[in-house]
Structures are given as structure tokens and as C-alpha cells.
Specification:
Elements lengths: L10 H10 L7 H13 L8 H8 L3 H14 L1 H5 L15 H12 L11 H10 L8 H11 L1
Length: 147
């Protein structure tokens, strides 16, 4: 079976990949991707996708994807994870909603309360029809980001 994306490492890239595993605190997936590229090098071992997958305990698709990212986007893209093309869910609060949340935070808390809680802030945003529903965790993340 012929390989669609042929990996050819320069001596500098090869050195960089060999050093990566002994650097200290490096994410496991980066080390594994570096190992995949080292074994896939056409000027080196030139292992097949199947053999690399069996050696490192990954799926053949992972090996193919790492090869593809290296050939099309370069070394850094191959070592990293693929970015999502779009978020899995749209954000609950846009910039306008965040402004309203901050305005609610600065307003006095409801009667009988000493301060705003995340749950109360979420309920207030629903009451003001900024969002249909929102979790306290989403409120917390937005406040953390803006503080």
C-alpha cells in the first residue's frame, strides 16, 4: 500500500524530534506524534502506517493524520492537536450578553440577599431574556474571563 503523504525530515527537524521526549514536561501526545514522525521518515526507517500504529498503540488514522499535517502544515501543526473547525456549541453569551451580565453584577442584589450568586445571576439573565437558559458554570467562566 502506497503512502499518500511522504514524510521527509531535515536533520534539524530530526534532532528537534529526538530531543522532544527528553525535554522534561511535554504532553504525551506530542511525544507520540514526534515518535510517529521519526518512524515515518522516508529517509529513515520509513515504516508503514500499520506498523507505526501497532508499535505506538494508536489508530492508523492517527498516523495518517499526523503525516498529513506535517506535509501540508509543517512540524508544529503535526506535533499539536488539530484545532476544531467550529466550536461544538455556540456561545451562550456574546459581547452584548456579557455586558448585561456585568451590569447585573454591579447592581444591588435581590431583596433578602447579601450578594449575587452565580445561580441568581443566571436566573436574572433568563428573566431579562438575554438567554433562554444558562448554567452557573457558564456565568462563572464569563465573570472569570472579564475580571
Amino acid at each position: 500500500m502506497s503512502v499518500k503523504y511522504v514524510v521527509r525530515l531535515t536533520p534539524e527537524e530530526r534532532r528537534q524530534l529526538e530531543v522532544l521526549g527528553s525535554k522534561g514536561k511535554v504532553a504525551v501526545y506530542k511525544v507520540r506524534h514526534a515518535q510517529i514522525l521519526l518512524k515515518a521518515d522516508a529517509d529513515g526507517p520509513a515504516w508503514s502506517n500499520q506498523r507505526i500504529a501497532e508499535a505506538f498503540g494508536v489508530h492508523c488514522n492517527t498516523v495518517g493524520n499526523v503525516r498529513k499535517r506535517f506535509v501540508l502544515q509543517g512540524l508544529e501543526a503535526a506535533l499539536g492537536r488539530k484545532k476544531q473547525s467550529r466550536p461544538s456549541r455556540p456561545q451562550k453569551l456574546d459581547a452584548e450578553g456579557e455586558k448585561k451580565l456585568i451590569a447585573v453584577c454591579k447592581s444591588p442584589p435581590p431583596a433578602g440577599r447579601g450578594r449575587w450568586t452565580l445561580r441568581l445571576l443566571g436566573q436574572k439573565l433568563v428573566q431579562l431574556e438575554v438567554v433562554d437558559s444558562i448554567s452557573p458554570e457558564t456565568v462563572r467562566q464569563v465573570l472569570k474571563k472579564t475580571s
